[in-house]
């Protein structure tokens, strides 16, 4: 059983803690006391003041990274230098320089592994949408629309999360999933992007970013729009959707439910009745699987960095 340590307790720790005692054993943490009390109240593993002290003391196989977004790159690189594999909540890093350093290290050390928590790939609705498209049910994809909307929950967020300079903005913190889905669903590649990001909900907060969208040009000549907001009212927690139009029809997914409708030559608005089981991308990766390949983990982050650059510089950027 793999020996895992956790750094930070910000988001998505349940992807790791749900596997405690079955697929992994948590042997140490480096997080604040209140984070331990919330995420791991019954954990007996020691908590350390620094990642370096923890690495030396418990010698983990894997480092799970869930700290503040602007601190992730340094922690990931420190863990890689210690010889550990990495499971990281998105984003992996915020800048292209950090991205290139990470990619270079992994290329030079092919025995080390990294997983970016692109968990939508394991969701039943998105799995079935992927399978329907890849089976040719709507023909070659021509246009993709991915929507990811959530509540801001401003009073519940730590200060760093509300500052785009530390959180990275919506492409790196949220829409990285949508960018990955465009390529995963269609089998195409993003070759160019034009993006926008701003703040309309709390205009007196200069560092908040609560909406973003990116227009993507695809390698097959098609296109995609990935958009999202942290603007939903209290009456709705999240709204994740996908529409893919192809040469022979279209597919429309509402993740809530999920509800998936297919329109093609067979019929209009055919409701898909069955869905695959949910897949833990972490458990799959621990077992040596490739549900989220390392190349996809890195590429999704690179796409998010490029989309952010496009929004900040107000220009079209070429894809990876």
Give the secondary structure arrangement, pairings included:
Layout: E1 2-7, H1 14-17, E2 24-30, H2 33-39, H3 51-58, E3 62-65, H4 72-82, E4 85-88, H5 96-108, E5 114-116, H6 124-134, E6 141-150, H7 164-167, H8 170-186, E7 190-198, E8 211-218, E9 223-229, E10 238-246, E11 249-254, E12 259-264, E13 267-271, H9 281-286, H10 294-313, E14 317-318
Parallel strand pairs: 1-2, 1-3, 3-4, 4-5, 6-9
Antiparallel strand pairs: 6-10, 7-8, 7-14, 8-9, 10-11, 11-12, 12-13
Pattern of helices and strands: EHEHHEHEHEHEHHEEEEEEEHHE
What is the total domain count?
2
CATH homolog superfamily of the largest domain: Dihydrodipicolinate Reductase, domain 2
Radius of gyration: 20 Å
Mean pLDDT, nearest integer?
96
Low-confidence stretches: none
Overall strand count: 14
The fraction of residues assigned to DSSP E strands is 25-35%
Shape: globular
Structural class, from helix and strand content? alpha/beta
Main sheet characteristics: 9 strands, mixed
Number of helices: 10
User: What proportion of the residues is helical, as a percent range?
Assistant: 25-40%
What is the topology, as strand order, of the major beta sheet? 13-12-11-10-6-9-8-7-14
What is the CATH architecture annotation of the largest domain?
2-Layer Sandwich
From the 3D structure, determine the CATH topology of the largest domain.
Answer: Dihydrodipicolinate Reductase, domain 2
């Amino acid at each position: 059983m793999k020996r895992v340590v956790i750094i930070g307790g910000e988001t998505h720790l349940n992807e790791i803690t749900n596997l405690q005692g079955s697929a992994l054993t948590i042997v140490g943490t480096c997080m604040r006391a209140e984070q331990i009390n919330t995420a791991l109240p019954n954990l007996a593993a020691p908590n350390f003041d620094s990642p370096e002290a923890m690495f030396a003391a418990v010698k983990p196989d894997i480092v799970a990274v869930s700290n503040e977004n602007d601190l992730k790159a340094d922690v990931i690189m420190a863990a890689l230098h210690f010889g550990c594999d990495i499971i990281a909540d998105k984003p992996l890093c915020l800048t292209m320089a950090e991205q290139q350093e990470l990619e270079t290290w992994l290329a030079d050390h092919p025995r080390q592994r990294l997983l970016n928590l692109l968990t939508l790939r394991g969701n039943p609705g998105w799995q079935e949408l992927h399978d329907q498209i890849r089976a040719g049910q709507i023909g070659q994809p021509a246009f993709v629309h991915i929507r990811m909307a959530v509540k801001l929950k401003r009073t519940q967020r730590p200060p760093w999360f509300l500052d785009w300079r530390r959180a990275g903005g919506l492409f790196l913190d949220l829409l990285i999933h949508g960018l990955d889905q465009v390529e995963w669903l269609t089998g195409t590649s993003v070759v160019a992007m034009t993006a926008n990001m701003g703040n309309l909900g709390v205009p007196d907060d200069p560092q908040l970013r609560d909406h973003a969208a990116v227009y993507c040009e695809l390698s097959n000549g098609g296109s995609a729009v990935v958009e999202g907001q942290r603007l939903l009212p209290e009456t709705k927690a999240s709204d994740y959707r996908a529409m893919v139009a192809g040469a022979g029809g279209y597919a429309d997914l509402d993740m809530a439910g999920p509800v998936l409708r297919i329109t093609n030559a067979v019929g209009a608005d055919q409701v898909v009745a069955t869905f695959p089981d949910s897949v833990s991308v972490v458990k799959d990766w621990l077992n040596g699987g490739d549900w989220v390949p390392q190349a996809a983990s890195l590429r999704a982050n690179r796409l998010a960095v490029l989309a952010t650059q496009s929004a900040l510089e107000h220009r079209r950027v070429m894809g990876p």
